[in-house]
């Protein structure tokens, strides 16, 4: 397939572009800067210049492709207002891409997050949240999946809170950044809450599998580690950085504080069985051993 990819230089996107190219697909990738264009060109992708807010550019990219993988998300989410704006931009972009593919039967794979379910790991059958701080994202993903009834092979890959590579990325990366900034490897509450995780290279394989074969209207969970206790994550970060490990207030993590404090394990049993996906790369706790002081 000739695949249009947005967000192709991020932690997930760069791995997805490489995975597609290594498996016989060609890539048309959105680039909003000269540096992004160089990275994508060096990787072997064709480049389409524009940003996530350039809806006409997105439509043109989708029109040129046999399928679309939508990964781009705004870079500014340090405040609640910025997070809301980034979600709104992503939602408009997904709507533009989806409308471009109506009646075509072509695949459109988007990204969302694993849902939170009290008392047990979430599964692919659980709905994503449509209220709360990221509810608008859930609503836009649901609207995209509903395009299955209009001839779009729309699917969603749900990512855990930490997507990592070489010790970097995701919520664990934000925890590490906070540790470097404050001098404490902190965790909210008693740290018993669990976060699921996946290596970016394993997640990239799932995006390719969903693009190639996932039925319309389906959701999949890219979960390799069902749930590591946050205090265990903080313990590795503290040891690698030579910092004390302590409980800290939720507010230390800004708008993500309430999400950081939630117990949110997730399963990928159905994804593995149905699509034949099998994670092979290091777990989060092993990958965090790559952190440098």
From TrEMBL:
InterPro entries per UniProt: Epimerase_deHydtase, NAD(P)-bd_dom_sf, NAD(P)-dependent_oxidoreduct
Kindly provide the name given to this protein in its UniProt entry: Nucleoside-diphosphate-sugar epimerase
Q: Which Pfam families match?
A: Epimerase
Taxonomic lineage:
Bacteria, Bacillati, Actinomycetota, Actinomycetes, Micromonosporales
Domain NAD-dependent epimerase/dehydratase residues, every copy: 3-216
Q: Note down the stretches annotated as region Disordered.
A: 270-293
The superkingdom listed in its UniProt entry is Bacteria
* One CC-aspect GO term: cytoplasm
For molecular function, the Gene Ontology terms on record are:
aldehyde dehydrogenase (NAD+) activity
Query: In what ranges is there compositional bias, type Basic and acidic residues?
Result: 270-284
Organism in which the protein naturally occurs:
Paractinoplanes atraurantiacus
């Amino acid at each position: 397939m000739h695949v249009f990819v947005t967000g192709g230089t991020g932690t997930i996107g760069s791995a997805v572009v490489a995975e597609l190219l290594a498996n016989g697909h060609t890539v048309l990738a959105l680039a909003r800067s000269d540096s992004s264009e160089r990275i994508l060109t060096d990787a072997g992708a064709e480049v389409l210049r524009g940003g996530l807010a350039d809806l006409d550019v997105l439509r043109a990219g989708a029109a040129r492709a046999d399928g679309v993988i939508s990964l781009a998300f705004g870079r500014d989410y340090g405040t609640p207002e910025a997070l809301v704006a980034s979600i709104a931009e992503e939602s408009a972009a997904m709507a533009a891409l989806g409308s471009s593919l109506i009646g075509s039967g072509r695949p459109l794979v988007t990204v969302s997050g694993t849902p939170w379910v009290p008392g047990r790991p979430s599964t692919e059958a659980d709905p994503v949240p449509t209220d709360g701080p990221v509810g608008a994202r859930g609503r836009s993903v649901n609207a995209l999946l509903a395009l299955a009834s209009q001839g779009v092979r729309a699917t969603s890959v749900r990512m855990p809170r930490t997507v990592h590579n070489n010790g970097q990325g995701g919520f664990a990366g934000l925890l590490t950044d906070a540790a470097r900034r404050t001098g404490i490897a902190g965790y909210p509450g008693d740290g018993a809450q669990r976060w699921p995780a996946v290596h970016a290279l394993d997640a990239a394989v799932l995006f390719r599998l969903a693009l190639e074969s996932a039925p319309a209207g389906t959701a999949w969970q890219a979960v390799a580690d069902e749930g590591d206790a946050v205090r265990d994550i903080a313990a590795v970060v503290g040891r690698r950085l030579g910092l004390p490990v302590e409980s800290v207030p939720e507010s230390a993590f800004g708008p993500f504080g309430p999400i950081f404090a939630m117990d949110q394990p997730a399963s990928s049993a159905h994804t593995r069985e149905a699509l034949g996906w099998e994670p092979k790369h290091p777990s989060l706790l092993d990958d965090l051993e790559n952190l440098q002081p």
